[in-house]
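Weekly modeling sync, notes
Attendees: AB, CL, MP (scribe)

Item 1: holo prediction request
CL wants a bound-state model with F0G before deciding which constructs to order. AB pointed out that an apo prediction alone won't tell us much about the pocket. Agreed to run with the ligand included and paste results into these notes for async review.

Input as submitted:
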Amino acid sequence: MQKVMNMADHKVVCWECGTEVSDPYANLCPKCKGLLTVKMDLTQAKSMNPEDLRKTPLGVWRYAPFMPVDEKNKVSIQEGGTPLYSTKALGEAVGVPDTFVKFEGLNPTGSFKDRGMTMGVSHAKELGAKVVGCASTGNTSASLAAYASKAGMQCAVFLPSGKVAMGKLAQALFFGAKVLSVDGNFDDALALARKMHDERKIYLLNSINPYRPEGQKSVLFEIIDQLNYEVPDRIILPVGNAANIWAVYKACTELKEVGWIDRIPKLTGIQAAGAAPVAQAFAEGTRDFIAEPNPETVATAIRIGNPISGKKALHAIYDTKGYCTTVTDEQIIEAQLLLGRKEGVCVEPASAASVAGLKKLREEGIIEKDEKVVCICTGNGLKDPDTILNNVPKPIPCKNEVADVERILKEQ
Ligand code: F0G
């Protein structure tokens, strides 16, 4: 048994035509312009069993034999290792009692993006990159800014003007990134960031960079590990730029390849009704999507009309006999409050979309009441206090005397 755990061998290939890609700056296939992916050599993992990994703490780097970056080069602020809550009260309220919530809001910068960023920035360090950048609806920029600080790199983030939640904006500024407020939506900001990458002015760390989803695979590894290798029936997660559902799918296929699981959960993607090209394609049964030019939703994290990894997301959904649907802004806010009131968990609106989707799909009979379901709640509610304050009661004015407190406590 090999005890030293570092990266597995790997190559970057075109997901669509299989061409091997050697240019480390390529984000698309030089031959067919297809999306790229990392093909892992899992020989080392095949010689191990899950127990071997448990010698290191729960977190992204526990799964180093499934990762394409040498652990010796890691840039880490202890990402991953987030709780998997058994959320029976929430589950009973929505009619699926065996429900769990994987709370990604407890990552170092408050979202799941840290899983991909530890991998992406470590790889950028291996390449000798000095300036990193990304477009973002907020969380990716907060995360990249933090990891760039840790790595001593310069960082530029491209944000859709006026549409980024306050907490996320504050984080990116706080960590010292150059924050560019771009005239346009996320899709416009990403197009600009990609131009900068193509001109080699920045090293792009959006999820079109195939190393990012590799780190994001770890959320699935952790869920299965935390359930002691009992595979849930379904995993539900919000879909924006559509890389995370792909990462979860890739992790499932790799665990199956090494023989640690024998079936794959139904992957179920949830989009906001006003930003739903993937759900639209699923409803029509197509394998590609038509971009939405004017995406709009209260869940600003997933306010995306032209998701880069949309085709990969659709593949993940079809191949696992999963599902994809939309939820309205009202359903998102209702689910966000339900999580807070039933479970004491505060997630941001995009993350609540997974729970809103669970409720809707149970009502529609797509999800059975006896399924074991994991909702991935991707980001912390404190990222977006404005939305919370818009949807909860105001503080109650109170005189500095006991009688007034008693009066207020008696009120309904
Ligand atoms: N949930 C949250 C909280 C997010 O921030 C995002 C994406 C998603 C879900 C969707 O994940 O894009 O992989 O489908 N946020 C990106 C950003 C776009 O810039 O922070 P996805």
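Recorded for review: Confidence is low (pLDDT under 50) at residues 1-5.
Action items: CL to compare against the apo run; MP to circulate these notes.
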